[in-house]
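User: Fold this; tokens only.

Assistant: Input:
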Amino acid sequence: MATPMDLLRSNLSRVRIPEPTNRIYKQECCVSFDTPRSEGGLYIDMTTFLAFGKEYVGWNYEKTGNPVYLHIKQTKKPVPEDRPSKKPTLLAIGVDGGFDNNETEYEESYSIVILPAHVALPFPSVELPEKVRLAVDAVLIAEGAERKEQVAAWVADKKQVSAYAMNLQQIDNGVTIPPSGWKCARCDQTENLWLNLTDGMILCGRRNWDGTGGNNHAVEHYKETGYPLAVKLGTITADLEGADVFSYPEDESVLDPHLAQHLAFFGIDFSALQKTEMTTAEKELDQNTNFDWNRIQESGKELEPLYGPGYTGLVNLGNSCYLAATMQVVFSTQSFCSRYFVNQSLKAAFERAPADPTIDLNMQLVKLAHGLLSGKYSVPAMKEEDNADSAKDKQEGIPPRMFKTVIAASHPEFSTMRQQDALEFFLHFLDQVERSNGGNPELDPSRSFKFGIEDRILCPSGRVAYNKRLDYILSLNIPLHEATNKEELKAFDKLKAERASEGKAPSNDEIVRPRVPLEACLASFSAPEEVQDFYSTALKAKTTAIKTAGLTSFPDYLVLHMRKFVMEAGWVPKKLDVYIDVPDIIDISHMRSKGLQPGEELLPEVPEDAAESNKLMANEEIVAQLVSMGFNHLHCEKAAIRTSNAGVEEAMNWLLSHMDDADINDPISEDAGNQGNALSNVDQAQVDTLISFGFQEDIARKALKASGGDIEKATDWIFSNPDASASSDMDIAPSSSASNPSDASLPDGAGKYRLMGLVSHMGTSTHCGHYVAHIDKDGKWAIFNDKKVGVSKNPPKDMGYLYFFERLNS
């Protein structure tokens, strides 16, 4: 009978010594959320370096025939009761000076295991073949792929030197700043004060989203004067690098290499000053250190934990709450639950997966579904065996690292540790799911969210045109004029004015927010709107048409997006501080589009001569200026057309980024000048993202066209062209079923829906703050805040950012 060592020697050819470029998984099973701390430990395939839990390592052997594994098992170390808790000094996790999670420490044990008999040999051991010892040592020393893919150190971006600091102009107006006793020049604020480094004005900082902070006087002063830099009083000490300098035009904290000189201009001896205020980064650190769960949600009620299938929390990987909140709601739908949990086992998904299951979206969705819905990982966390009471209200949750890596592969922003927009992530996620199920639309769960929208254009001639498109979300404006508490709002405005005259702000208890019924938001979607400069093929002239919208199908799950982020005058983004009164049951049957009605006459098709006359031509002035700079005339014409004649700068930017295009010297095609076609060919998901920022759809389409489909550049284009309008390009021809998206195969039914979940957001922007999900599970509302899961005693139904409704079939 062969000995364990003989078995190992006979399989040495299946043992590989990892190269530096190999990805080594040793912290998490690739088909489950088992770790070295799990009861069975973790098995690393010494051929592929993939990791498997005890229940799943046999599947890998059956699929690959790889027999040799490194088994890693972690067991708890006893922790001294008097271990001190260190206060962090850096906004970071897992680095010196960062957050101390006070996690239990573990010790690791290793062995070599040979399948299928699970024969084990101890490691380390001098008796093991040298190749095995070298291979295992390389695995243990190497940084795990999980670690590489998730930056464990969460550190604020390094501050850059401000472009405005080098040649800052300072006004000698006789101002001398005292070493203490400061007060805002426009109100009574004595904290959060900023010294403008141009004119020496001392003014209070911005008001926070929750009502705290200053009265915005410092930023208002910048808008009035354009003076760019300010330093926070109370943060100036002998260590000038620690001073909080803010650049308004650059909209971030910066370094001022000449700060000593700029302070001396106003008589400030920085070496004598003491620190009395927190910097912006320290405030952020303090808010993270003292995360006030009760203040953010549920009005301070104590959380009653929930455990079991469907109540598994998701570990925050670093600003990943947008992903956690969205996926909790998604996997509460029947369509995704069936596709990736009920009808697909982990083993079936693994057998169908490619050689590396960590990069397969289907495998990672099945893994995530089973992790969330099986209940296996939804158990109370026990940090100390003898201190069960302190841990009874917590669960460890599961970290969606591999899923995040796969879903972010085609979207660079989601692969970062920065906060993201939950709406943008939801749309990207559904797009990836649709692509992965492209060959089997009947299996595609994303279809349960998809529906058709039809726009009806009524021309003054009495004729109509219909245009169809498909979407996953219904994005709704919030008509503040429809607020139901107008009298209370008037009284609050009066109180706010009184407080302002006293240099104060209303307390949180005194703040009154508009209450707008959801019905009013839905009505605004269907309400008629004017389309200026509409080219009528019946009148053969530009005129004003009336557009109305309706749904051609009702999805299984209706997602409503509330446009809480809007643009104020001067293109300043603002979050609407508003409540939406959302009923548990809604009926949108009246929103169904009826299509072409008896007696209606379609607008005639666009004649070729009319199409030719409406073709966008290059602006001669733009072309001439570009040619004078030395650019080719044909290239200049293309640039002007491709940027919709937006301006010389936009055209030049397009030129510089397309000089190497293979078709740059080709003649201008007819489609190049057909702006209507160009506007209709942009990615609808990108249009929806810009709409969510508060931009009009026609402007969003034109901006995306001018920027080549880059959302960030499109946003800059809109800000740079505040008077831009795409209405002149909306020469909508009558649609035909052949040229429009087909919604015949989409789910459809009655228009009555039940509220089943919502994602709420706290913060001044969708790219900062915090996302939380509330879900109705079997008639009982639950709150999902990353890995915290509990009973929701007072779900904030009026504070949602995304509302998820399930269609009632009865």
